Amino acid sequence: MQLHTLVKPAAGILIAAGLIGAAYVAYDRWHPGTRPDASAKHDDDHDHASAGEAQRVKLTPQAQANLRLVAKPLKLEAFWRTIPAPGTIVDRPAYSDRGVVAPTTGVVTKVHRFPGDTVRPGELLFTLRVLSETLQLTQSELFRTSQEIEINNEKKARLTGLASQGGIAQATVIEIDNQARRLAAASKAYRQELQTRGLTPQQIDDVAAGRFVSEIAVKAPRAIGAETKVHAGDSQTPGSAGLDESALSFEIQELKVELGQQVQAGQTLALVSNHQALFIEGRAFRDETPLVEKAAKEGWPIQVEFMEKPDAGWPRLEQEFFIQYVANTIDPASRTFAFFVPLSNQ
What CATH number does the domain containing 110 carry? Predict the structure, then answer.
């Protein structure tokens, strides 16, 4: 096949294509009424866009029933913003753990309770043999003062009759009364000193009668109190409302002394614990500070969820939870701050 036989048809196709293109370019001139108007197309696109922005989906009653749609009028209500915060149960300072100290200098002669034992307030823990010179001197002074009070009273009884008959001056009787008041004040001071040393009222009376105390019993501490409900803004210190001591018990955690050891006044003999009054220590981030402070200031109740199984056997907590105080420092490692919620251990 020769080359010129192929060129001719190709040239014909190109020429025809050129004529069609020229006719299309000059279409507006030879047939202006049939080509679509560009402005009309623009307006149509604008209408479609407006319709798209305001699109609505109409559902039949059956479709609404299938989707369970309920239409209600708008109502203005308060919205509570909640934040989750992790927390742990911790001991409450000055309530959970306490130290038992020696009231005076002495030697431990008996240990009545050991770690793991449970004791009630007022039960005997230790017996100390007194070595304190101050305590011995106080006992001697109380006994001497008691004897002087008896002598002064006998003297007053003898002279009162003579003074009424004019046998002695009335000023003598007045001086005896003044001496009686001075002795009574001294006796009261000595009794108070012995009481702070751990002696019972019966023991103090025995000292006044001349029966000195050589051993002191150290007992479990009295109850400070436990909270039942704490409200923000209460003037009363939370947990100081009082507690029935018959329901309170301490556990001996640790002994700090040994049998036969000499101890000084104020030295810790043992550590005891009572976990009836505890704290929930929550942790929150810095940007949550305003919400936590607001909840503490306004006394808003908070919800506490314990990570315990339903069948764990713990009784239901019948108390409301409130933030007692917020820590004023931020942990540099976790970038969180602590807030504390009182907890009554059921």
Answer: 2.40.50.100
Q: Identify whether 24 is part of a domain.
A: no
Domain membership of residue 314 (yes or no) is: yes
Q: Are 108 and 259 in contact (CB under 8 A)?
A: yes
Where among 273, 292, 307 does a domain terminate?
A: 273
CB 81 within 8 A of CB 291: yes
pLDDT at 270: 95
Q: Is the pLDDT of residue 226 over 50?
A: no
Q: Which is nearest to 136 in space by CA: 186, 200, 194?
A: 194
Overall domain count for the chain: 3
Name the β-bridge partners of 322: none
CB–CB of 317/346 below 8 Å? yes
- Tens of pLDDT along 109-161? 999 999 999 999 889 999 999 998 888 999 999 999 999 999 988 888 877 76
**249 and 114, same structural domain?**
yes
Q: Are residues 169 and 299 in the same domain?
A: no
| Runs of H (alpha helix) within the chain | 3-25, 27-30, 38-53, 61-67, 133-165, 170-196, 201-208, 289-298
258-301: pLDDT as tens digits: 999 999 989 999 999 988 889 999 999 988 989 899 999 999 98
Which of the residue ranges 6-20, 72-86, 270-284 has the most confident prediction, judged by mean pLDDT? 270-284
- Show contacts of 62-67: CB within 8 Å, 24+ apart: none
Let me know if residue 295 belongs to a domain: yes
Q: Do 332 and 291 share a domain, yes or no?
A: yes
Report the C-alpha gap between 281 and 89 in whole angstroms: 6
Element (H, E) at 119: strand 118-119
